[in-house]
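Budget justification note: compute hours in this period were largely spent on complex prediction jobs such as the one shown. Inputs:
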Amino acid sequence: MNTLLRAVKIVDKHSPWNGQVRDVLLQGGRIVRIGEALDADGAEIREGKGWCVSPGWMDMRIASRDPGYEHEEDLDSVRRVAARGGFTEIMLLPNSKPVVDAKDTLNYVRQPRPGQPVRVHVAAAVTRKAEGVDFTEMIDLHHAGAVAFTDGEVPIQNADILLKALLYLRPLDSLLINRPEDRQLTLFGQMNEGITSTLLGLKGMPALGEEMMLSRDLKLLAYATEKVGPVNQGNDENSGRNALPQLHVSLVSTARAVSLIREAKAQGLPVSCDVAAHQLAYDDSALMNFDTNLKVNPPFRSPADIAALREGLADGTIDIFVSDHSPHAEENKNVEFDQADFGITALETAFSLALMHSGLTIEDIVEKITANPRRILRLPHVIISENQPANLTIFSPDEEWTFDKSLSKSRNSPFLGSKLPGRVIGVVNEDAQLWGT
Amino acid sequence: MAQLSVRHLLGIKNLNETDIHTILDTAAQFKEVINRPIKKVPSLRDITIANVFFENSTRTRLSFELAEKRLSADVVNFSASGSSVTKGETLLDTVNNILAMKVDMIVMRHSSPGAAHYLSTRIPANVVNAGDGTHEHPTQALLDAFSMREKLGDLRGKKIAIIGDILHSRVALSNIFCLQKLGAEVMVCGPTTLIPKYLPELGVKVGHDVKAALRWCDVANVLRIQLERQQIKYFPSLREYSLYFGIDKAMLDELDREIVLMHPGPINRGVELSSDAADSAHSIILNQVENGVAVRMAVLFLLAQQ
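Corresponding output:
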C-alpha cells in the first residue's frame, strides 16, 4: 500500500527536513520521497490541518500483564493501546507471571504480530522471579533478544546484586534499569510523605527513600566504571564496544534525585534516566479525596519536585519520557486506598501530558520519546529521510481531544473524561498502519 | 432546626465550626435525656442503622449501639470476624448486601484510612466514621471536646496537650482538627518517632518532655500506646516508654494548678497512665464514656435529618 502524507510538518531534529512542511511518500514500508506537491500517483492521501510527522514514538516502561494477568492487559490489547497513544515501539517490563527470567517466557512475549504497527521489545529480569536473590542467565537472555535487564516494578534492594549485574552486563553493552526505592524506608507507604499524608493518616513514602537508593546506585555505578591502573586500559576492547556499565534510572520523582543525576552526569558517569509523563500532572495534594487512580509509585510529590523535574527535562538531565503504563483490574483499584494497587493506564495520555505539563517544545518532547530511548537501549535509530524504513507517528499537537474511552482492558486512569491537548492521528511501522483510533 | 453542612460524618476535617457547635449543643440535650428515668426518645423510630465493624471495638460499638437504641432506631451489628470478609468479599459488596436489607445508615469502623470516605461516595446511605485506620475518629474528638467544654466552658484559648502515640492515632488527628476549629491551642507530646514530621505545618506545638507538657496544658489527653499497629519498630520497650513518657499521680500533684486528665480508652494501666493517675480526681475518663453516648445520639439524630 502506498501512502502520501500531504503537507505534514516534519518533527525530527536528526532529519534535514526538520521543521519543514513537506509531502512524504511511503512505498513498500519505506519513505521513498520527501518533497513539495508530490504526485500521489495512486497512493492513498492522508492530510489534515496542523498535522506533524515524527519518527515513531518509543515507550520503554510498560508493565507486562501477559502471561498471568491477561484480564488486565494482553499482548494484543497493549499494542492497540500503544498505537492509540502514538507509539510504534514499546518495551515491556519482566513482571508478568511467570516473570520473564528465562528464554521460554521471553520468546512468548517477544512473538511478533505481523500486520500490527507496534513492535514489542522485552526487558528481562536481573534476578529469578524478580525476587532479588539469584541471577537470571543474563548472557543467554541477551542473545535471545532481551534489550535490557531490570527487575522492573521491583526495585533491586541488595547492593551487591546491583553491582554484580552492572559488571556482568558490561561486556554485553546491555542496559541495567532500576527504579530507586529503599523499601525499608517506604514500608507500608501509600503516598508521598508530607502534610497531605499526615492529614489523611496514610503512611508516607519519603523522598528520602528514592534519594538514598539513587545515591547508592550511583556510587555502585562509579565503582563499576572505575578503571584501575594503565595496564587495564582497553582490556575490554575486544568486545568491540565502549564496555562501560550502563545504568538507567527509571521514574525519577524528586528534586534531589534530579540533582544527583545531574551531578553524576557532570562527572561523566554512564547514567541516564526517565520520568513518567503523569508525574508532572499532579502533586500529592490531589489525593485529598483518596482517589485510588492517583495512587502511583513513585508517588505524586510536591510542587517543588515537579518544578525540579521540569528543569531536569529542560537541561537534558532527564533523557526520556515514559508512560509507566500499569493496568489494573477494577477489583484492585475500586477498593480502600491502602488495599489498592499502584499505577495508572497511561499509554494513551503520555504524550498529551508531556505536552501539557513539561514546558518543553514539541521537538524536545519528541526527542525524549524517539531518539533518546532508542539510543539508550541501543536500538536502531529512526530518522525521517528518503530511503529509510517508515517508522512514523502522525499527530496534531494543536488539536484537543477527549479521553472518553480507553482501548486498554483496564480503566485505572484519572484522566478518563478529560480534554487533553495533542491528538494522535495515526502510526506507521513499515507495512503496518493504524489511523484514526 | 439546626442542620449540619454534611450528609456523612467522615471526619472532623469535613466539618465547620458551626457544625461542631451544633453537634455539641444537641448532645447536651441528649445528655439530659439519658439521665432521665426513661432514657429513650422516639426520634429515629423509622430508621435502621447497621454498625459495621471491620476492626475490634468494645467501647465505641457499645456506645453507638446504645445511642441508636435510645433514639429508638432499629439496630443490626456486623463484625468482620466470622463474616464473608474472611472469604474475600470486598467492602463495597459487604455493605451493599447490608443495604439491600433496607438499612438507612452505616456506622463503620475499618482499618484503612479513607474507608468511610470511599464508602460515602459509592452508597446512598449516610455514613458515620467510627474510626478509619490512622486517619480520623470524629465522634471520639467530638465527645472529647464535649467533655472539655463541660469541664472548662468555652475552649477558645485553652491549652490541650495530646500525649502518646500521635503517629498511629486517629484520635490525635481528629482531636487536633476539632480543637483548632474551636479555638484551642494544641500541643502533641511523645517520642520523636511517634510524632509525624509534618505536624507542625498544622500549627501544632510539638514537645518531647511530658512534665513540660503537663505544666503547659489545661487538659492532658493521653493516648493509648498501640503496639498492635506497630509492625515497624518505633521505640524500644513498654518499660522505657512508661518510665519516660508515662504519667503518674505524683506528676499531677507536682503541678501548681489542677489540670484535666483524659484518655480515649482502653487504658494500658502502668504504661501510659498509672492506676493512681487514671483513678484520680483529675481524671474525667468515665465522663468521656458517658458523654460518648450523648454525642453519638446527636450525630445520628442530625444526620438523619439530612
